[in-house]
Every structure is written in C-alpha cells, then in structure tokens.
Amino acid sequence: GEPLVIYNPLAIEREDVVEAEVEANSTGGIQVVDGKGRPVPTQVLSQTNGLARILFLARVPSIGFAVYGVQTGKAGAGKSSLRVSDRVLENARYRVTLNDGGDIAGIFDKSLKKQLLTAPARLEFRQEVPREWPAWNMDWQDRANAPMGYVDGPARIRIVEDGPVRVALEVQRTARGSDFVQTIQLAAGGERVEIVNRIAWQTTNASLKAAFPLTVSNS
Fold first, then answer.
1. Which of 21, 43, 69, 119 has its CA 20 to 30 A from that of 202?
2. Nearest to 41 by CA among 187, 195, 154
3. Does the pTM of the predicted model rise above 0.85?
C-alpha cells in the first residue's frame, strides 16, 4: 500500500489520532496497517475525486517515527469503545454530556469515577471598554465584571463523526450577531476532550472567553 511516515516530536511515547489525505481510486474501502502488517483502527472522513481524508490510530516512539501503510480493503480492527448520540460522546476514559443549549454539561472521568465540571462549560461574552487603545487594550476593571452574556442558542446539534477512531458532535449557534460552530471530538483511547471552534465574529465592544468550572481548584 501507500506508506505514511508519522513523526512524534514529544519526549514520550504516544498513541494518537493521525489525519491524512491519501490517493484512493477504489471504492472498496481503506484499511491502515502498522509496520508489522497488523490492522489499526481506521476511519474514512470523506472520499472525492480520487482523494480520501482518513483517520487512524498510530503509536510512535519518543522523538521518533513509525511507518504505516494505507491499503485498499474493508476496515476492521476490533471493537471500539466509542459511542455517540445526539447529546452524549463516550470513550473508554470519558463520558461527555451536552445540554439542550449546546453546552458541555458534564465530563465524567471513568477512571477516577468523578464528575469534572461543577457547571456547564460555556462561551462567555466579556465587556471590553478600555480607557484607551481599544484595538488591543484589556482593562482590569472589565476583567472584574461578570459576563455580559453567553453563547446560548437555540442550538442545532448533529452527529458529524461516528467511527472506530473518533466521534464528534457539531453545535451551531448564533448570539449577539456572531455565528458559532463548535465541533466536540472524542477519540478512541484518548485522554483529551477536543473542541474545534469556527467563529464569524461580529460582536462589538466584547471579547469571548471559554469558561470551564472544574471540580478541582487551587486557590
């Protein structure tokens, strides 16, 4: 198949999601294999004009590389711990729950048996009226004020990824004249809840803050 060299710049061995665009002239499916020819979890995001965007799990040594092969064939690399519905994403580590407003209402850590949020994680509108240089200054007085509002909704929530490598929910909202699209992702074996934000910002005299009130704190 087509070889892909995956480099890990971190000082620890790492298993993580790789996204790649590869040539795919067949509709028979795609399977990625490791250096010993063993299949790894593989997911096709899109396939058009002879190119495919794929996801797969790669394990790469510290400050090193590994070679994986992209082959034609039906993907099948064992059972996956991933689950997704219109309000819940789940992998072996976390169960992430959304409320009807589109906010992350809870992140339950299965290994700790602990809820990580005391309240929903929200996007806050913060007032910005500095005494001078409003293009870049941010005054402490504005920091001390409560949020002047939130990205609330109504929210349109849909499943955009559902595979053995990653699941994702997309949340679309409009608030205070700006448009927000958040993609909340959870990967197989992953220990991160990833949120991709695409924002068409049209709100004046304001900044946007991602607030996530945790159940642990350090004064």
1. 119
2. 187
3. yes
Q: What angle do CA 58, 96, 90 make, to 5 degrees?
A: 50
Query: Any bridge partners for residue 22, and if so which?
Result: 52
pLDDT tier at 212, thresholds 50, 70, 90 = very high
Q: In 3-state terms, what secondary structure has residue 42?
A: strand
DSSP conformation class of 211:
E
Q: Give me the sheet containing 30-33, strands edge to edge.
A: 2-8, 64-72, 30-33, 39-40
Residue 157: band (very low, low, confident or very high) from pLDDT cuts 50, 70, 90: very high
Strand ranges for the chain from DSSP E = 2-8, 14-23, 30-33, 39-40, 42-48, 51-60, 64-72, 83-84, 88-90, 94-98, 104-109, 114-115, 122-127, 149-150, 156-162, 166-175, 178-187, 194-200, 206-211
- Name the residue among 183, 211, 188, 185 with its Cα closest to residue 198: 183
pLDDT tens-digit profile of 53-110? Answer: 999 999 999 999 999 999 987 765 567 889 999 999 999 999 999 999 999 999 999 9
State the virtual CA torsion across 103, 182, 90, 47 in degrees, nearest 10: 160
Q: Rounded to an integer, what is the distance from CA 158 to the centroid of its chain?
A: 14
With CA atoms as reference, report the closest residue to 20 among 28, 37, 148, 40: 40
- Per-residue pLDDT of 22-37, as tens digits, reads 988 766 789 999 999 9
